[in-house]
Amino acid sequence: MKIAYAFTNPIKYADLKVFLYTILSTLTYILFPFLVLMMIYTGYLFVAAQGNPQKLDDAKRSLLWTTIGAVIVLAAFAIAQMIDSTAKNLI
Predict the structure, then answer these.
(1) Domain layout of the chain by residue ranges
(2) pTM greater than 0.85
């Protein structure tokens, strides 16, 4: 007795590239407004510091980490495009 069963793909994307692109675009749409809010908050920290060196250092640190986060989020698409174009050229 032979039993045959076909497994179905639980993910609605047939291609890994489309799946990863969807994840990256979703993360970008979620994180970009957060980055804008963090930039506004960092500006508030600079204004609220009023020349206090400790508070200015905190504001500078916040600006640094917000900028690093923005670069990572925005570079995700660039890195994905480079990998995709390299893979297409190899084939």
Answers:
(1) 16-90
(2) no
